Amino acid sequence: MNYHFFVGNDNGNSEHDLIIDGKLVQQPNVNCTVDELPWSEEQTPESFIKNLQDQLVVTIDSPSARPGMYYVGKFALESGEVLDNLQIGIDLKSDMDLPVINTLAQIAAMAVQKAYEEEKKIPVQIDVEVDMATALPVTQHTDETSAKFEKRFTSGLHHVTVHLGMQRVAVKIVFPFAKVVPEATPVIFTLQKDTAGGWREGEIFGDFLESYEVDKKFNGSYFKDKRILHVDIGDGSTEYPITEGNKFLRQFVHGSHHGAGYAIEEALQEFNRLIHLADSPRQFFSDVIKNPNHKYHARALKTLRRPLESQVRQIVQHVKKQLTKARNEIDLICVYGGGSILMRSILYGQLKELCTEREMQLLYIPAEYAVQLNAMGLDAFVRGKIYEALKNKAVQPVPAG
């Protein structure tokens, strides 16, 4: 079986958000190396298909990562094994095996699901060709690091074995071309266009329309020539790039090691004490925070308040620094990323005041879109004309002589 997938791949410090073949996958961005399969009793291979992303076990043989068997995402997080994750403020994504392994695993899982959906039986082998756009933080993105990261995907054939209980599916993945862009730049595409390529409308702009008296026919075309200061708040870093229209302004590259993850790490010790655990991973705390019905939710929020206020203070200082550098020549500040959801109750009012004072607008992306904005933008980019032109240019044969 042969497939061609378009992949928009946002490798976050805490969460991995990918749009593969038009479908969104969201998983904790962790994995762990294991020596044997976790299943002993005979489970039917078919029973794994529907929730494959939540019980993903793969064996990887790739020129770009350490070979071995891995639990990936949620299954790794809940396994109790020693986890590999992206160390906040330390790891360069382009050097790490984790983003490569988790990306290959999720693409392979989606291929297995698609094959089963179409054929109604478990395939033996699948070949997948992938066009992919992914991103690096603006502070890590250079010509050198982006070329290096691209090469980790494009440098050869990747063999992934997906384990469905005791049955194996061999998935061969090849990337004829991949493009690594600075994080935040894909967001411009998301704000302007929807998945069908029309101007974006609807809920994503709800708060914005209430705050500012804009035209009732408002849509994404509003942003096509705007100068935007992005505040992309992740787990381990916040990026503050400035874009103008579809252009990324290289002279305003700025990022800081502030984010929800630092607040969580600061709160974690107190949280563990309150729930009588010697230790628990950052991703567990994140899951508790996201789930209002979790028995530890109220305690997690309580321990998080003060560390969050401290992170917000720092982020606002960096926003002011960027505004000063840009001489306040900014049309709007756009805030998104997983950390923006946690910080909203503290950060929104401070930024709204700043925008009013400096005569600009605030677009604070609603929670249901805040995390996937980069993935949506990468998906739009990989399907668009710019990507196609870059690919054609890159894969053209060099003329003889």
The tally of domains stands at 2
Side by side, the strands of the main sheet go 3-2-1-7-9-8-5-6-4
- Alpha plus pi helix count: 13
CATH hierarchy class name of the largest domain: Alpha Beta
| Major beta sheet summary | 9 strands, mixed
CATH architecture of the largest domain: 2-Layer Sandwich
CATH topology of the largest domain: Nucleotidyltransferase, domain 5
Question: Structural class of the secondary elements?
Answer: alpha+beta
Count all strands and give the number.
16
Shape: globular
Name some characteristics of this structure.
alpha+beta; nine-stranded mixed sheet; 16 strands; Nucleotidyltransferase, domain 5; 401 residues
Q: Summarize this, please?
A:
The chain is of the alpha+beta class and 401 residues long.
How are the SSEs ordered, and which strands pair?
Layout lengths: L1 E10 L3 E6 L2 E6 L2 E4 L11 H4 L6 E6 L6 E5 L1 H4 L20 H22 L5 E12 L6 H12 L3 E7 L2 E16 L2 H8 L13 H6 L15 E7 L4 E2 L2 E3 L2 E2 L6 E2 L3 H15 L7 H9 L6 H29 L6 E5 L1 H20 L3 E4 L2 H4 L2 H10 L2 H11 L6
Parallel strand pairs: 1-7, 7-9, 10-15, 15-16
Antiparallel strand pairs: 1-2, 2-3, 4-6, 5-6, 5-8, 8-9, 10-11, 10-12, 11-14, 12-13
Helix pairs in contact: 5-12, 7-9, 8-9, 9-10
